UniProtKB/TrEMBL annotation:
PANTHER family documented for this protein: OUTER MEMBRANE PROTEIN TOLC (PTHR30026:SF20)
Protein name in UniProt: TolC family protein
Family: Belongs to the outer membrane factor (OMF) (TC 1.B.17) family.
SUPFAM superfamilies: Outer membrane efflux proteins (OEP)
Subcellular location: Cell outer membrane
Taxonomy, superkingdom: Bacteria
Keyword Magnesium among UniProt keywords: no
GO cellular component, one term: cell outer membrane
This protein's UniProt keywords: Cell outer membrane, Membrane, Transmembrane, Transmembrane beta strand, Transport
RNA-binding as UniProt keyword: no
Molecular functions per Gene Ontology: efflux transmembrane transporter activity; porin activity
């Protein structure tokens, strides 16, 4: 029930958080990087599918190497004999041929289709791209969680500042009334000039504190609006917060939900696939291809020019002077570095939770003490004011009671929102805020 009341009481803050998450330029930038990684994964998937390309070449040649073909020497004697036997010239004399090796006025146009059958590198590449998408999603959530923390802390600091301003504003009216009373008493010879001077000094002191508090509230407003990407001078709707935060998160000291740990786990998985990719040279690469085209001289296209050409390929890296071994050892070194970093970050985050738990417990103790002091100082001031009006107390005693009450109000205000700020810090430390 308490958690439900707190949630309803801070619906304005929740609205601002969602506004900040949707308008943050940093998160937009991370989302663009996520989109890039998604397209990289799609590209990796297409590498398993056939690829089709069209290519054509045309050659024009003259000179260069030739092949001599003795056509005349081979056939002219036989052709002469046949002409004598037939009494005709049906068999002409032939010239020896000199054939140019470079094809002249020759074209070759084809559609080339290729498809991998077995390629371990492509398999590992797809896995790595998938994990990089998960890594970037985690990075986006990390930015969101940090922004939520900053927004909530800025909001509570703004509330602390405006409440301090209200306290000083109320106190200013109080000391101004005291100044009026002392002036009246002085005019009637009931008090000396010292009471008037001290009351005037109190008005100046509280007025200065009030101005400082309003400036602090304005600065807090500017920063809060900056975080949610709004004009800096926009007004802020505030929730009524006058109770301590629900303390269920104090008991949660787990760090498994931290995006930092998730990123390290994904990095370890990526390293495993990089290691597998480095070892993939042990597996041969098998592919197939088909060419459908036409080739001939003088741009002729007919049944003789059309052709198909199909085949399969196998590539197996047998020896590379230790290059693959060095690549494998690099991934092993990276894995050890990730494991060491994981241990360090785990200890760091666990320590942070312990520190945050101590901070919020201290803040709660400070608030309880301030509450007690507030009740005591209010009673003390009320009693002293009554005695002063009856002439049974001097002004310095009233002034002491008045300052104690004002200070108690400020300390209570500070202690209250310090607990909420500490609550936000521990909420960040154990990643208990639900990121949409």
């Amino acid at each position: 029930m308490l958690a439900t009341r707190q949630l309803k009481a801070q619906n304005k803050l929740e609205t601002y958080i969602q506004q900040g998450l949707s308008s943050s330029e940093s998160i937009k930038q991370q989302n663009f990087l996520l989109e890039k990684n998604v397209y990289a994964l799609k590209e990796a998937k297409t590498m398993f599918l056939p690829s089709v390309s069209f290519s054509t070449t045309y050659t024009k040649a003259d000179g260069g190497r030739t092949i001599d073909f003795p056509t005349g020497d081979l056939f002219n004697a036989a052709y002469a004999t046949l002409n004598q036997l037939t009494g005709t010239n049906s068999f002409p004399q032939l010239q020896n041929q000199n054939i140019l090796i470079n094809p002249d006025n020759f074209y070759d146009a084809k559609l080339h289709t290729a498809m991998p059958i077995l390629n371990a590198e492509l398999i590992y590449n797809k896995r790595i791209k998938t994990q990089q998408v998960d890594l970037q999603k985690t990075e986006v959530n990390l930015y969101k969680r940090e922004l939520v923390k900053e927004i909530k802390m800025a909001y509570y600091k703004y509330l602390k500042a405006i409440n301090a301003s209200k306290i000083y504003e109320s106190s200013l009216r109080l000391v101004q009334e005291g100044q009026r009373i002392n002036t009246s008493l002085f005019n009637n010879d009931k008090v000396n000039r010292t009471a008037v001077l001290r009351s005037s000094n109190e008005v100046s002191k509280i007025n200065a504190s009030y101005i400082t508090a309003t400036k602090t509230a304005a600065a807090a407003r500017y920063y809060f609006n900056f975080l949610i990407n709004r004009p800096l001078t926009d007004s802020i709707l505030v929730d009524e917060i006058n109770t301590l935060p629900y303390q269920d998160k104090l008991l949660n000291d787990q760090i498994t939900g931290r995006e930092e740990m998730t990123k390290l786990q994904i990095a370890k998985e990526i390293n495993g696939n990089l290691n597998g990719m480095a070892k993939s040279y042990l597996i041969p690469k098998i592919g197939t291809f088909v060419d459908l085209g036409s080739q001939a001289f003088n741009w002729k296209v007919n049944s003789q020019s059309r052709y198909y050409f199909a085949g399969a390929s196998l590539e197996w890296n047998l020896f590379s002077f230790g290059k693959n071994t060095a690549r494998i050892k690099q991934t092993i070194a990276d894995r050890k570095a990730i494991e060491a970093q994981t241990d360090y970050v785990q200890l760091q985050l666990s320590t942070e939770i312990k520190v945050r738990q101590a901070e919020i417990q201290s803040a709660i103790s400070q608030y309880n003490a301030a509450q007690s002091q507030l009740k005591t100082s209010k009673t003390y001031y009320t009693d002293m004011l009554k005695l002063y009006k009856e002439g049974m107390a001097i002004y310095i005693e009233l002034l002491d009671a008045q300052n104690q009450w004002i200070d108690a109000q400020q300390q209570t205000n500070i202690a209250l929102f310090d607990t909420w700020i500490a609550y936000t810090a521990i909420e960040r430390a154990n990643a208990s805020f639900n990121i949409q």
